[in-house]
Specification:
about 450 residues
Length: about 450
């Protein structure tokens, strides 16, 4: 079970830079590469002797860290993989004692954390000018989806907590590269990632903790039926309930990329030469800030899409999800029953065909029994028992059960010292020692 108090990464320290007891940390080559073969083998065999695992990754996207900043970051760990653009480390017994929020506000644009007891967290730093703060707050759920203002930045903090035991699958690693595309999408005005985070929070907390049954869902973004690769990974990372997502996305309108692209091209074509020159120079001098401004202007010009349906209540979505869950489980049960019936029918047909072959040449079947017993192996005894069961069923049909019982008794008498064979016969229905000739 997950520890009662989360003593790791969520602990806030007073400073962004504080040295941790990193002797237990194990560095990871590159950013999020797979573990060493020795550890993967140990995990696969099920005897890896550690009880905790934590993974931390940070990325600086818009601006790489300078040498002074790198020096500060290196005081956090002697074993982490640190570059001007990334910080990656994993812990088995130790803990990361830096302040994640402070690191995000000062140095990094994205962060991913997960622990094997069920805690998962992803954060994005986005310029305040790029997003409508009031709109973003409609997606917030306490302790799950939060937004903090840090100077010129908004820091989105998304957390998933699952109390379903330890999850330490060596073949299911999450790295920041698989979800960092969410940040780019948010800058372009695509709020599907935020909506998925809100849904995940709703599925974990239920409506009474997410504002009550009358709480409104945030504006429903278009395109939930065609998620991007980063959004698909985010949904999996946050352990989003598939039935709740299915219920929510039914009302999501489709994306109109062609119309958006056409509007953006029209806007660019209408720009005055002086404005185009200014934009190009800005992209060269301050690429991150200029790009954010440019994306915002394009979004304002080309965004013709509005939420395609009235905002629903949290309880409505949960009820719809429960209906889907019941329907899905009933459909699964029906499919399993149909598959079982089909399998049993096939087995019955195969058995009747086999019985017909045995009935056509019963003497050959008795010879097969003798040959199988003569092997004096477990496989031979099993084969002999199966053929004897067929012969007994045929005898019942043909009214020759006394003759069958007589031959079976002779076999038992001839091989009475074969303990394993006697055990197989005694355990098989209709072949035990109580079978006597009539």
């Amino acid at each position: 079970m997950r520890p009662q108090s989360f003593k790791g990464e969520r602990t806030r320290q007073g400073s962004a830079i504080s040295v941790d007891a990193d002797s237990a940390g194990v560095s990871r080559a590159g950013t999020g590469q797979c573990l060493g073969a020795w550890r993967r083998l140990s995990l696969t065999l099920g005897f890896f002797p550690i009880s905790e695992y934590q993974y931390y990754e940070f990325l600086a996207i818009d601006q790489p860290l300078d040498q002074d900043q790198l020096s500060d970051i290196r005081t956090l760990s002697t074993r982490a993989s640190i570059t001007a653009n990334s910080f990656v480390n994993e812990y088995h017994w130790g803990d990361f004692r830096g302040d994640v929020t402070s690191l995000m506000s000062q140095f990094y644009d994205a962060h991913l954390y997960w622990a094997n007891w069920g805690t998962r967290r992803v954060m994005f730093r986005i310029p305040r000018s790029a997003l409508d703060t009031e709109l973003i707050e409609t997606f917030c759920v306490e302790d799950h989806v939060e937004v903090q203002v840090a100077g010129e930045w908004l820091i989105l903090d998304i957390t998933s907590e699952q109390d379903d035991g330890y999850d330490y699958d060596p073949d299911n690693w999450f790295t920041l590269s698989s979800v960092v595309g969410i940040r780019e999408e948010l800058l372009a005005g695509d709020l599907r990632g935020l909506y998925l985070a809100w849904l995940a929070a709703l599925s974990q907390r239920e409506s009474d903790d997410a504002g009550g049954p009358d709480a409104l869902e945030p504006p429903l973004p278009p395109g939930l039926n065609e998620l991007s690769p980063a959004q698909q990974v985010l949904a999996e990372f946050l352990q989003l309930d598939e039935d709740l997502f299915g219920a929510a996305r039914e009302a999501s309108p489709p994306l109109h990329r062609d119309a958006q692209d056409s509007a953006a091209r029209t806007w660019v074509q209408q720009l005055l030469p002086q404005e185009k020159d200014r934009i190009i120079l800005s992209l060269l001098e301050k690429p991150a800030a200029a790009r954010t401004e440019l994306l915002g202007r394009i979004r304002q010009h080309s965004s013709s899409e509005t939420p395609g349906s009235a905002r629903r209540r949290a309880r409505q979505l949960l009820d719809l999800a429960e209906e889907r869950r019941v329907q899905r489980q009933e459909a699964q049960a029906q499919r399993r029953a149909e598959q079982r019936a089909k399998r049993e029918a096939a087995e019955a047909t195969a058995r009747q065909e086999r019985l017909a072959r045995v009935s056509a040449d019963q003497q050959a079947a008795w010879s097969e029994v003798d040959a199988a017993i003569g092997q004096k192996t477990a496989e031979g005894y099993t084969l002999a028992v199966e053929v004897l069961k067929d012969l007994r069923e045929i005898a019942e049909r043909e009214g020759t059960l006394p003759q069958f019982s007589e031959r079976l008794s002779a076999i038992r008498q001839a091989h009475r010292r074969k303990v394993s064979l006697m055990r197989c016969l005694n355990e098989a229905e209709g072949l035990g020692p109580d079978v006597r000739p009539a």
